Amino acid sequence: MILTVSNILQYQSFAEAKVLSGNVGLTNEVSGVMVMEAPDIDTWGRSGQIILTSYFALEKLTKERIDLFFKMAKTIGISAFIFKKNRLLDEIPEIFIESCMKYHLPLIQIPKETSYERIILEVLETIINRKAYLLNSYYDIHNHFVKMTLSEPKIIDVLKVLQQMIHNPVSLFEKIKGTLIATDNQSTDFKIISEQYLPKGQFMNFDYTQRVANYPYYGSGDTHTQLAVAIPSLGYEQYELIIHEINEPVSDIDFMAIENAVGILQTELVKHYSIKQTTLNKTNELGSDLLHGRIEDEEQFEDTLNHLKLNKSEPHRVVVFEFSEDDSSKNLFSLLSSRFSDTIVNYSKKEFYKLVYVMRKQKVILILPTDTIDSESLKKRLAYILKKAIETKPFSAFKVNVSISDPTNLKSLATAYKQAMDTQKIIHLINKNLQIKDYQDIGIYQIFSETNNLDQLARFIPAKINQLHKDNLDLLHTLEAFLNVNQNYIEAAALLFVHPKTVRYRIEKIKNSYQIDFNDPEEILQLSVGLRLLKIIKQ
């Protein structure tokens, strides 16, 4: 129990004491006692102190200096003033009472007969006993959690022990996934009304947020406070331990238990993260072997499918999420890309009951059984995942596209992966964001993407395009922009950041120098395809 001004008034040494300031500050915590000899309180004053004085040190000060003294006492956190009559002052000065009332400082008067020594001994005895009790409590709590750590407890076991110690329900919340582990389901339904950071006090090494929340289960009109402490962890997860102060406020001893619980929870979460990373690395390795067709031995192939829990009797598709930064997010991209990958995976797990995922730099690759999902339904579900993933503000600036292979058997997964990556190339060629395309959507480009010999692609590029590329890149880019906007001079100018007259001049030059008929749809089709093939070859 914390020692307060109200508590010390029950001591025998205060039997004849009078409180001159009403109920002001009687709940102030007391952590020490001192006799005042000089008015430089900013030098020797400490938070929680009770000051014993006969007013002698303040007697010759001006009103302004006295006001500054009490203002400083309030700022420091002095708990109370105890005035003792002496042979010079038989009555307490009015300015003393007024100043204590002004700054909400308790003022207690004791008779001449009461000795300072008696008060100091009684107060310090309680404080020393309290510190000894706290020390023993800390040892017992810490020892209990150390023994618990050696038994490799589950997270819920740690939470239950903490609840028993602090007599309030607790829960562990993971913000990114929205998962919650709680000791009391009734306390998990709440609405936060307000929150503020809690100043650090004794036994508080972590950062705490104090909230006022409404808990419908305990009465729709009632509010309770809760404490939330962020648990430092590895990876992208954001864990928060919540103490629901339903039964009683958290005490200083409770903070000892909470701090120890946070430590053991952090240890367990690091273990979970390490196991997860080991599993992920193994899955990435096996999944990559399948996607790149590196498994030739039949027994190894079967072992890989068993480990990844893939059913070879079902058709599968390969889905590739590929993302990059825009100019405004380059500094943050490297820090956020792994978190974004995790976010995509988590939403994918919620949307698809069975899947295998492989995580690569700027890519998340899903291997999905699709025997019951048609192409359009699959696109809708992937669109939902994409929408949820980029809703978070740090990710909203990412450029993300999704490509889907044709259904295939697991033996031909390498072919499906190539289809998905070829589709990504065509999406890049179109230069759009947030596209979801399957292999069938790229149409005629399948012919070219399936051709591994770049010289073969070059054969399909019209000679006029090759000559333009060699002679004048500005004219080539103007032609491309002009054809992409259906031969609209104004829109092409906007794309090129030039005046429409400049576009018109360049197009006339192209028409005359390279003998291009812009009214011939067949020639325009060949030129458009040629420009795109040129981009593919560059890539």
From TrEMBL:
InterPro entries, per database record: CdaR-like_regulators (IPR051448), CdaR_GGDEF (IPR041522), PucR_C-HTH_dom (IPR025736), PucR_C-HTH_sf (IPR042070), PucR_dom (IPR012914)
Domain PucR C-terminal helix-turn-helix positions: 475-533
Domain (Purine catabolism PurC-like) ranges: 8-127
Pfam families (alphabetical): GGDEF_2 (PF17853), HTH_30 (PF13556), PucR (PF07905)
Domain CdaR GGDEF-like: 293-425
PANTHER family, A to Z: CARBOHYDRATE DIACID REGULATOR, DNA-BINDING TRANSCRIPTIONAL ACTIVATOR ADER
Family from the record: Belongs to the CdaR family.
Entry protein name: Purine catabolism regulatory protein
Species, as recorded: Trichococcus collinsii
